[in-house]
Amino acid sequence: xxxxxxxxxxxxxxxxxxxxxxxxxxxxxxxxxxxxxxxxxxxxxxxxxxxxxxxxxxxxxxxxxxxxxxxxxxxxxxxxxxxxxxxxxx
Length: 90
Known about the structure:
4 helices; mainly alpha; two-stranded parallel ribbon; 49% helix
């Protein structure tokens, strides 16, 4: 299956993320608590975050050793660069 993104939308987001955001990092703390709480005792092998932004949630999940393999789906080039710099480990 192939997906495409409207070029105008992609252009709007390509340079949206200039640096890792402390605000997003703080927001990720409670979001990750919610994710873990909703999953209960389930052991998840793969996690995909769609619209990952700068990867703050994936980074936090990685730090907490939650989930097996962590994946991101993101259209912004600048966000992908930040996610790669975070070196999220699964």
